[in-house]
């Protein structure tokens, strides 16, 4: 009997792996058609400026509405898009849409902010970043400073020379650059001053655990590094009022997280209901 159940387990295990492989293969196949079939949409997550009590900007995040599987998370499809190289076309589309959206908000007098778009190492490898950004800005008429690119430490370290020269060219258009998920990559701090960035985004893993003394020390350290290098600092993954207050008390006034707003479609951003959780009064008192 033990033998049988052992066998069953083996069969089940194999089926599991097989299932995963075929899902990945299916997604890969479907991803190739997703752009032309208009299955992507963009959600926007606010970055809150607690000092001024208003939005400081938004991060644009990609969503895939799969015709059969429902919404597939970027954690699942972005790696596939990177492997296949499809991420380059997707990013081009994303930049165009985001610039158009932001120009519309700007012209309607709704928001006067910067919107960020996440970059993949593949985009840098393809050497098309400048043309993509330039085209998106030109065709929308959006000023360069109203667009920001988020890169990670691993992108910057992946191929330093290629990354830096391309970043420099887009920065010459006035476009901002932020370092995403800061503190989680395996970069050497020693090269941070060589990467042309304007903003550090403290990774959510620090913020979520900011009731721990050790994480608090790291947060304070990152804020200090940002200040020394004359960079702005944004905390990611702020989920509770306690976390927001701690960050504020340490001089980090730019925040992003579910406490301030989840990523949402443009109609919800426009409705502005997410603005209710505002601790700017406390920010004013803290100064
Ligand atoms: P990221 O750039 O670090 O984006 C932040 C992620 O954390 C988002 O997940 C966001 O929804 C989530 N998040 C924000 N606030 C909170 C919070 O308070 N608590 C928790 N638990 N999570 C929070 P999402 O949208 O699933 O995106 C995951 C990752 O996928 C992104 O991480 C980014 O690396 C990648 N990604 C998303 N869209 C794109 C894209 O258009 N291009 C590229 N290259 N990557 C993208
Ligand atoms: Mg990001
Ligand atoms: Mg991030
Ligand atoms: Mg992240």
TrEMBL record:
It comes from the Bacteria. Residues 24-277 form the EAL domain. This is Signaling protein. The chain holds residues 396 to 682 of 682 of the full protein.
């Amino acid at each position: 009997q033990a033998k049988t159940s052992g066998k069953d387990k083996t069969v089940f295990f194999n089926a599991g792996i097989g299932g995963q492989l075929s899902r990945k293969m299916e997604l890969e196949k479907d991803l190739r058609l997703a752009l032309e079939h208009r299955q992507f949409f963009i959600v926007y997550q606010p970055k809150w400026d607690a000092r001024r009590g208003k939005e400081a900007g938004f991060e644009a995040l990609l969503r895939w509405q799969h015709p059969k599987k429902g919404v597939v998370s970027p954690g699942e499809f972005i790696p596939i898009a990177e492997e296949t190289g499809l991420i380059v076309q997707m990013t081009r589309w994303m930049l165009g849409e985001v610039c158009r959206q932001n120009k519309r908000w700007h012209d309607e007098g709704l928001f006067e902010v910067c919107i960020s778009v996440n970059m993949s190492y593949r985009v840098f490898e393809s050497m098309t970043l400048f043309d993509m950004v330039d085209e998106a800005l030109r065709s929308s008429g959006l000023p360069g400073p109203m667009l920001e690119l988020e890169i990670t430490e691993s992108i910057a370290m992946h191929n330093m020379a290629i990354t830096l020269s391309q970043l420099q060219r887009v920065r010459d258009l006035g476009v901002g650059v932020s370092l995403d998920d800061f503190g989680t990559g395996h970069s050497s701090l020693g090269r941070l001053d060589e990467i042309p960035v304007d903003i550090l985004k403290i990774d959510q893993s620090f913020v979520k655990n900011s009731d721990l003394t050790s994480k608090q020390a790291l947060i304070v350290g990152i804020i200090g590094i940002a200040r020394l290098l004359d960079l702005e600092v944004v905390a990611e993954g702020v989920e509770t009022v306690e976390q927001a207050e701690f960050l504020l008390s340490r001089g980090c006034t730019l925040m992003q997280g579910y406490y301030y707003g989840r990523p949402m479609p443009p109609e919800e951003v426009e409705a502005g209901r997410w603005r209710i959780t505002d601790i700017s009064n406390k920010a004013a008192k803290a100064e």
